Amino acid sequence: MTPTLGWDDKIAVLHLGEDENRFSAGFLDAVTEHLDEIERAGAQGLVTTAGGKFYTNGLDLDWLGAHAEQTRDYVARVQALLARVLTFPMPTAAAITGHAFGAGAMLAMAHDVRVMRADRGFFCFPEVDIRIPFTDGMAALIQAKLTPRAAVASMTTGRRFGGDEAAEFGIVDATAAERQVTEAATGLLRPLGGKDPGTLGAIKQTMFRAATRALTDV
Questions:
Q1: Does the keyword Cell wall biogenesis/degradation apply (predicted)?
Q2: What's the predicted TM-score (pTM) here?
Q3: pLDDT, tens digit (0-9, with 9 covering 90-100), for 187-208
């Protein structure tokens, strides 16, 4: 399923899909186009959400296995998306309605706030177990958002965090019941409407300059 864009008043709701929502070339194209549209429309917030069992399972490893010669360009595209969301010039929230693994979990990390389903689904950086070291940019993104304790607990262990554990470690900001995750994420952004995008974007660029440089210097 191709990502689709909807609206809750002036808050853009980007639905990533109903399956594993892996970062295929088509997925990356669609998300980029929607982000362009959201900026042009003058949205007052961005929520990303999904249906089914997954928020997103991250990198399209099957495609990478068949196109190893394109790994560098592919990773650069993924990291460019992470950098864009990290510094997006409006309040952002990830509604983690299902599993978020690897680069999918990094996408959630790139948002300002995260709300995770309380009863089911895991948040996980499995890199240590699948023998894929973090790039400098991906590590910088995660460490820019997490405390050292949470970064070590999540990055070096491959641990699968349920909603309550993720909230305990500060990986997510809140949890909600199955059908209330997107609503809760939108609710966190609603009081923040009306922020000047130029000012907010500049603040994020300053806050996350090191991570952004690491993500885009590939």
A1: no
A2: 0.97
A3: 999 999 889 999 999 999 999 9
